[in-house]
Amino acid sequence: MSRPTIHYSVIVPAYKENGNIRPLVTRIFNALRQYDSPVPADQVEVIIVDDNSRDGSVENVQSLQQEGYNVRIIVRTTERGLSSAVVRGFQEALGDNMLCMDADLQHPPEYVPTMLAALSPSSTFVLGTRYGKGVEMDKDWPVHRRIISAGARVLALPLTTASDPMSGFFGIRKEAFLKARGLNSQGFKIALDLLIKANVAPEAIAEVPFSFGIRAEGESKLTGKVMIKYLEQLAELYWYKFSGLLVVLFIFLVVVLVLLARSFLGALDSSQQHK
What we know:
This protein is of the alpha/beta class. It has one domain (8-240): Spore Coat Polysaccharide Biosynthesis Protein SpsA, Chain A (Alpha-Beta Complex), CATH 3.90.550. Helix content is 43%, strand content 13%. The chain has helices at residues 18-32, 57-66, 82-92, 112-117, 143-156, 174-177, 190-197, 224-273; strands at 8-14, 44-50, 71-75, 97-100, 125-129, 170-173, 205-209. It has a 7-stranded mixed beta sheet with strand order 3-2-1-4-6-5-7, sandwiched between helices. The termini are far apart. The mean pLDDT is 84.
């Protein structure tokens, strides 16, 4: 008997997250096996993209495979980084509906069925948003993390209509992903990069409100270097989206200055002739 076709892929970028892999995978499939799950568990695969952690993650995944879970691990030895790991996972995915989530359990696995089901030919992007109705934004975060998160969101608002473009809990259809060009593999917020460079229309974005969970194992990846990378990414995206408009404005200003200069010189010549 042949195995069911995989229609959904869950991509999990990971670095030294071995302690979270088992609870993450088991909770994902437990949610998918609930009677009211809109997505069949046997049509879903989980892909761990590990940046050569050497922390037992490979052995952990092998154990889960032996227990019947459809999970596999890709170990990268020549590159690192969250965004490039997500892109690699999307490239390797068998499903046409692809979801990205963190390994640290802050993106609740119980939301996976709803997130996957929100993807369709008309909704090519789904975003887990912390700004939805009934959600207390980052309630378990310290004040400085809340300020950083809110500030980062405000800086991105001119780029997209999405309510939470900073979210790392998002999904995209394969056909939309393949349209993206020039993705920033060094960037920190790959969802924002994809929204802009895959040219996702506002009406094609589905949003699912969720509340952040609490990190169970491992350490936060938020550092000063990461924040600088984000600012660099923002600068690149602003140029990518608005460079044409900036060129038009520059040409317009040059033309206006030339006309003003000609008018001024004409008036100056006229006044000199009347002396």
